[in-house]
Amino acid sequence: MTAPTMSDPSALGLGEALARQGEAHTRVDVDEPARQLVLFRLGGQRFALPGSAVREILDGQQSVYFVPGVPDGIEGVIHLRGAIESVITLERLLDLPAPPPGAGMLLLVHAAGIRTGVRIEALEDVCEVGESTLKPPEALNDTLAPFVTALIHRDAREAIALLDADALLGAFQAGQG
Amino acid sequence: MDHVSLVVFEAGQHRFALEASRVRRLSSTPSHTRTAHLARLLNLEGSAPASRWLTLVDGEGAWELGVAGSTKLIDWPAPALYPLSELVLVRASVHPALIGIAFERQHTPCWLLAADRLTP
Asked: Which residues form the CheW-like domain (chain A) (predicted)?
């Protein structure tokens, strides 16, 4: 006589479940093109920029010098290893809550022919995702629509909006933000 | 080391500088009819009244630029002078005379002004 067990015979073993979960996060289809992304939070929401547009991730502790006359969307300039880089905030352009001054980190972004620091709330990850995980953006509001190229459903949390770096910096050059 | 002679002064909460060769005269009271306070030209808030007047020359002749605080002549090392980033320069709200920034150890940065882009 076998001892009764409390388990559902169709249930997975713990080891198998963990292995499957780990595989789900690490498996890369070598035949599928992948995109490197920098994932971050902004205004409490999740965003990404293409890794090709992000030249450097800075800890955000640099002194930012306010430039007389700049609009709210330009925080100022930083002195970075012998070069002057502007620092912009995207919240105004994307209609997100304003960030606390100087909080968070900086991404040094090169797009639309210019380079600038972009203030982010927090860095989430730098990762590669398969092209199949990028879904066309749907039901975006008019503010976000020009700047979001795809939505990424990476986990159970809310989708990540992949931003178009050229469109963002192009908008700043055109006087928005 | 290469250097640039700058006249350094204050307006609002900021330090500014003009190339010394562009400043014809420095006085404590204005003597020309054409004058302008730098703080007003740059829309700076909280600026003290002008305490020095720098004589500059534009296409219409001499005029005086009012600045606050002490005025110093500094030979600034050329490698410590930087142009502003393109993203800042293209913004219409930034005065076209604001062209660069200079760093000096232990001091707040100094904004560099192009004298020929200032006019009363």
From this structure: 34-174
Residue for token pair 């430039």: A67
Which among A84, A114, A115 has the least Cβ separation from residue B84? A84
Assess contact for B82 and B101: CB atoms under 8 A. Answer: yes
Residues on chain B touching A173 (C-beta within 8 angstroms)? 86-87, 90
Strand partners, B11: B14
Residue A3 belongs to some domain of the structure: no
Whichever domain contains A149, its CATH number is 2.40.50.180
Q: What is the dihedral of CA A32, A37, A40, A45, to 10 degrees?
A: -50
Q: Nearest Cβ partner of A84 from B83, B95, B108?
A: B83
Domain count, chain A: 1
Pair of tokens at residue A82: 């012998």
Q: How far apart are CA A17 and CA A61, in angstroms?
A: 42
pTM: 0.81
Helix ranges (DSSP H) in chain B: 38-41, 86-89
Residue numbers in A near B108 (CB within 8 A): 65
- Give me B14's structure tokens: 């900021």
Query: Residue A67 domain-assigned?
Result: yes
Tens of pLDDT, residues B37-63: 999 999 888 778 899 999 999 999 999
Full domain range(s) for residue A151: 34-173
pLDDT, one tens digit per residue, over A29-59 is 667 888 999 999 999 999 999 999 999 999 9
